[in-house]
Amino acid sequence: MIADQWPLFGLVLRTPRLELRLPDLDRLAELAELAKGGVHDPAVQPFLAEWTDAAPERVAASVLQWSWSTWARWQPESWSLGLVVIADGRVVGTQGIEANRFATLREVSTGSWLGRAEQGKGYGTEMRAAVLELAFTGLGALFARSEAFEDNHASYAVSRKLGYADDGISRHVIRGAPLASRRLRLDRAGWEAARTIPVTIDGLEPCLPMFGR
Question: Where is the signal peptide (predicted)?
């Protein structure tokens, strides 16, 4: 089995409504089709990388290529884990968590998106809670970071609900114009105080060396 060679394929996170796992090719194709249908209002660009401004077919292909590239580049000192989010048997989005020099810094950052039809259902909170449980409980993280543009109210609502605090601003160029984003940081105490969503983690033990643990 592939999980014998690449244990991350056996890692599964579960919340009351969601399952998060590394996608096989069929699930990855489903995620690409979801992205092809759009993940936000075209009038705005909520991501630092402007990948969704491309034609639908190019957007779908970029989802495949990004996932494959994270698998190929994986190292214990620098890793990016992109999980598909499954609700009622269908892929509804993706939740990522990544780190550099995790064994020393014990810090992760997260990013995610949902298909437009799946937004507004509370999935964003559950899927972020799942990877925070992986980070803090499973891997022993001390901090988690997030960042969103100032008009991304949904992302801020999730961060506040999960205990994040303000950590300054950054300025970026998006569609040729300057745009400010707000950084947020969650420490272990804040996570423990806001931890209300039950999460189970299966298959982590054989993956620990891959995370630098």
Answer: none
What is the Cα–Cα distance from 102 to 55, expressed in whole angstroms? 36
Is the pLDDT at 170 greater than 80, yes or no?
Answer: no
Q: Residues, the chain, total?
A: 213
CATH annotation of 2-211: 3.40.630.30
Residue 182 per-residue DSSP state: E
Contact 165, 185 (CB under 8 A): yes
Q: Taking residues 6-26, report their average pLDDT.
A: 97
Identify the DSSP state of 75: B
Q: Where are the domains of the chain?
A: 2-211
What is the predicted pLDDT for the residue at 182?
82
What's the mean pLDDT in 24-44? Answer: 83
Read off the pTM: 0.89
User: What is d(CA 158, CA 32) in angstroms, rounded to the nearest whole number?
Assistant: 24
82 touches 96 (CB < 8 A): yes
pLDDT at 57 over 90: no
**CA dist 11 to 2, 21, 95, 176, 187, Å?**
12, 6, 14, 40, 24
Residues 6+ apart with CB under 8 A from 110: 95, 96, 97, 98, 128, 131, 132, 144, 145, 146
